[in-house]
Amino acid sequence: MTKGQIAVLPTSRPGTEAVAACSAHHFARHSHDVYGIGIIDQGGQKSASGRGIVEAGPGTVITVNPGEIHDGVPVAGEPRQWRILYFQPGILKDALNAIFEGGAPEHEFTSPIFHRPALTQYFNRIYGHLTSINMPDGDENFEYDELLILLARASLEQAHQPDENRLIAPGVFRAKQQIDDAPGETLQLDVLAQTSGLGKYQLIRNFSRATGYTPHAYLVQRRALLARQLILQKTPLAEAAIAAGFSDQSHMTRQFIRFYGYSPGKLARSIGSN
């Protein structure tokens, strides 16, 4: 990114804002009416907030609460590069209610910075979702809902985390069966949670324990398996992609290479199919 640039990017979801910046700008004290969560990619920033003065370096997750007065200056006067997402309060509240089954406590980021790998991982993935221009995947709503809940969960301090012991339930197997029975069908997290009889966060956590995948990740790999089966039956690639639940052939190809290391076309050619 060019130095001195602060870009406000279009997002795919209402109530969200995305910013990508590389700047040595000194931000005066100000506040937002939304939650902000971001990451420093290069350089460093020093800031005063309602939770103290902190210095954030590369890889540090930065946060801001609605109404919190803060500023920001570059360390040693050098440009720092960062990305940040802003969420309307209701969006984060809904994600927390999914975790606490409707009884979420009032949320506040307890620290202006976090060094938490899971939080970094979920932020990067959801930032990619929100700022994607093409949005090619047919089930992006599913993965977005899942990532938002996991992002909110990773931002909680230990004192405010739910009792994990009570979140284990057998409904995950009903959800898994629904995916197994028809991986090519359109599916949303809300529907899968209803099938399981679990809250959305309960479903994500228990599904991961039982299968090693989140529900969305499991769905995608089942679709790749179905596509492979169809191709081995000499189904044309474009038809196989749609039947397996992918939005198009290029979407299938990306996932196929991700799982198998080679393209669907290579598999089709290996069996003498066009």
From TrEMBL:
<dbReference type="InterPro" id="IPR018060">
    <property type="entry name" value="HTH_AraC"/>
</dbReference>
<keyword id="KW-0804">Transcription</keyword>
<feature type="domain" description="HTH araC/xylS-type">
    <location>
        <begin position="173"/>
        <end position="270"/>
    </location>
</feature>
<dbReference type="InterPro" id="IPR009057">
    <property type="entry name" value="Homeodomain-like_sf"/>
</dbReference>
<dbReference type="Pfam" id="PF02311">
    <property type="entry name" value="AraC_binding"/>
</dbReference>
<dbReference type="InterPro" id="IPR003313">
    <property type="entry name" value="AraC-bd"/>
</dbReference>
<dbReference type="Pfam" id="PF12833">
    <property type="entry name" value="HTH_18"/>
</dbReference>
<keyword id="KW-0238">DNA-binding</keyword>
<protein>
    <recommendedName>
        <fullName>HTH araC/xylS-type domain-containing protein</fullName>
    </recommendedName>
</protein>
<dbReference type="InterPro" id="IPR037923">
    <property type="entry name" value="HTH-like"/>
</dbReference>
<keyword id="KW-0805">Transcription regulation</keyword>
<dbReference type="InterPro" id="IPR050204">
    <property type="entry name" value="AraC_XylS_family_regulators"/>
</dbReference>
<dbReference type="GO" id="GO:0043565">
    <property type="term" value="F:sequence-specific DNA binding"/>
</dbReference>
<dbReference type="GO" id="GO:0003700">
    <property type="term" value="F:DNA-binding transcription factor activity"/>
</dbReference>
